[in-house]
């Protein structure tokens, strides 16, 4: 029998309306919705990929950026191997807010690979230059990429780079084998946190 593939838990965080749900939608469904409603609580999608010859199932948790849902977020950090930290290149406030997200990450789960994503590069009214994003990423040891969920530029790359880095860091996932037996549902829904904490086998 084929050995079970890896399931990795990824988390999308960042201020409201930076495009977290749109990036996830683009990545999992290849689509873009110009008038997406804000996420309520948390959403969840699964995507299977083969990377570096390895079958991986990604469980991607999309958190709400709105302040009123922020108290929900800490429990979702648990068991994540990768975090996509998103800002909007046309809104400086979402860039200056990154330090707060990093502090929260450090507090709840410091053992993750982090990818900084500057989204909405298709828009003309840029407030954050690429080199500022790059500098911030270097300073905090984050992977970095700019994307547009609208045109799809960089989106696939962002997730792939993050997963490759996680695969290159076995200490993040090989200790979690005790979670075997937990099954993932192939669905997108507002979920409770108990569905799949960190690492689940492909069935
Ligand atoms: N032009 C452009 N618009 C985008 C892009 N990504 C997202 N948007 C739009 O920005 C708005 C907010 O996007 P969402 O994906 O809902 O943002 P979010 O970060 O998930 O927001 P919360 O759920 O409130 O945390 C929507 O109207 C999207 O259509 C992009 O790359 N380019």
Automatic annotation (TrEMBL):
PANTHER family: RAS-RELATED PROTEIN RAB. It catalyses: GTP + H2O = GDP + phosphate + H(+). Its main location: Golgi. The keyword Signal does not apply. This is small monomeric GTPase. GO terms for biological process: protein transport. The keyword Hydrolase applies. It comes from the Eukaryota. InterPro entries: P-loop_NTPase (IPR027417), Rab (IPR050227), Small_GTP-bd (IPR005225), Small_GTPase (IPR001806). Its EC number is 3.6.5.2. Belongs to the small GTPase superfamily. Rab family. CDD domains: Rab18 (cd01863). GO terms for molecular function: G protein activity; GTP binding. Keywords: GTP-binding, Hydrolase, Lipid droplet, Lipoprotein, Nucleotide-binding, Prenylation, Protein transport, Transport. It is found in: Golgi apparatus, cis-Golgi network membrane; Lipid droplet. SMART domains: ARF, RAB, RAN, RAS, RHO. One of its GO terms (cellular component) is Golgi apparatus. It comes from Corvus moneduloides (New Caledonian crow).
């Amino acid at each position: 029998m084929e050995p079970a593939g890896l399931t990795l838990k990824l988390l999308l965080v960042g201020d409201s309306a930076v495009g977290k749900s749109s990036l996830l939608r683009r990545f999992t469904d290849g689509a873009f919705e110009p008038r997406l409603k804000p996420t309520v609580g948390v959403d969840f999608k699964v995507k299977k990929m083969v990377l570096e010859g390895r079958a991986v199932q990604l469980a991607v948790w999309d958190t709400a950026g709105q302040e009123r849902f922020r108290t929900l977020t800490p429990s979702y950090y648990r068991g994540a191997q990768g975090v996509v930290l998103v800002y909007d290149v046309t809104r400086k406030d979402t860039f200056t807010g990154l330090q707060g997200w990093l502090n929260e990450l450090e507090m709840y789960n410091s053992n993750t690979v982090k990818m900084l994503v500057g989204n909405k590069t298709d828009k003309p009214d840029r407030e954050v230059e690429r080199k500022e994003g790059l500098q911030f990423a270097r300073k905090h040891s984050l992977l970095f990429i700019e994307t547009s969920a609208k045109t799809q530029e960089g989106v696939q790359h962002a997730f792939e780079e993050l997963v490759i880095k996680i695969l290159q860091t076995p200490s993040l996932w090989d200790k979690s084998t005790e979670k075997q037996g937990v099954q993932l549902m192939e669905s997108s829904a507002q979920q409770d946190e108990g569905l799949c904490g960190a690492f689940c086998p492909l069935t």
